Structure formats: structure tokens, C-alpha cells
Amino acid sequence: MVTKSAGHLKSSNATLLTLRKFQKQPSQLWRGYTALAARNLPFTAMQFPLFEHLRSTIHDYRKRRGRFSGTMLEMGTVTAVSAGAAGSLAAVITTPIDVIKTRIMLSASGPGTNPHEVPEPLPGGGTQAQAEQAKLERAQRAARGGRAGGYAVGKEILRTEGVKGLFRGGALRGLWTAAGSGLYLGAYESGRRYLEERRLGAEEGQGIS
């Protein structure tokens, strides 16, 4: 009973099942790394300069209006808003690269690993889901074409789905990036400000004593 249960858990482990697909071609695990770097580098290069510009602009505006207080709450809120806006804009702009990266990575685990594999034609009266799957398979075959895979996938998406296909999921990507960037940078700035205030308070206390 124990052996059977252990065997069932092993066979149902998603990680093990996925790794088995790459036993013959383990290099496929790194499929899409170049596209991943091509997405992250411009994303970061846009996000952080824009974030710093927005944050300094908001601080300057509040100082001119006489509303700047420098409290932990204010600094954290301004940082969160600036980071969210900058991250959202950078995410939407780099969505086409993210779409291409995703298609390339999906091609590594797609049906078969032969770059010359031809999928079966769609039967008459195929559903919309089948049509979408056919588009994905064409992009996957292009992605398995080697170093030019990213460019080939981009051309295939543009040809079959248009510009809209390259920005598929852009709104959702912008929303969760705004939330994520705002939360982690806002929390970081609030924590930094809190520790700084504690340090200054301790130094003042030592000076008085």
C-alpha cells in the first residue's frame, strides 16, 4: 500500500513529469533565455530611471505647494505610486518581447522536439480553440528554428494575429507589474525610513544622556 502510494505521488509530481520531457534534450530547459534577457534589460532600463524621475517630480511638486512632510507614510506612498506607474508603463512597452519569450519557452515543451515536425491539419469546422492552438503550433515551429527563433516567432505572430497579438495580455501585465513594483518598492522605502528614524532617535537619546 505504501509503495503504491509513493509511486502514485512520484508519477503525479508535476516537476518530475516536466523534467522527463527534457531527458533527451536537457538544453531545452534554457530555451528562451535570450528572449528573457531581451525583455528584462530594456524593462529595467526604462523602469528605474522613470521611477526616480516621477518620485523626484512628485516630491518637488509637494515642496512647492508646502505639503511635503517627509514622514514614513508620505515617502512610502510616493514611492509606491511612482514605482507602480513606472513599472506599468515599462511592462506594457515590453509586452511584445514578453509574448515572444513565452511562445519560445512553450515551444520547448510542445508536442515533439523535431523542428521539421508538421502538425496534423485541422478538421473541417474546427473550433476557435483549435484555431488558436494551430497559431501557437506555427509559432512554436518557428521558435524551434534556432538562433533566429525570436525574430521568426515575432514575424509569425504579426502575420497571423497582427499587432494586437504582440500586445496580448499587455493590460494584465501592466496591472500586476504596477501592483508588484508599488508594493515591494513602497515597502522597502517605508522600512528604510522607519529604520532611519529609529537610528536618529537612538542617536539623539544617547546625545541627551
Q: Could you tell me the number of beta strands?
A: 0
Q: N-to-C SSE series?
A: HHHHHHHH
Mean pLDDT: 80
Strand content: under 5%
Computed over alpha carbons, the radius of gyration is 25 Å
Quick one: overall form? elongated
- Put simply, the count of helices is 8
Secondary structure: helix percent = over 70%
Largest sheet: none
**Structural class assignment:** mainly alpha
Low-confidence stretches: 112-120
Distance between the termini: 71 Å
Short description:
This protein has 209 residues and is an all-alpha fold. The chain has eight helices and no strands. The chain is elongated, with a radius of gyration of 25 Å.
Structural commentary:
With 209 residues, this protein is an all-alpha fold. It has helices spanning 2-12, 14-20, 33-64, 72-93, 95-108, 128-143, 149-166, 170-208. The relative contact order is 0.12.
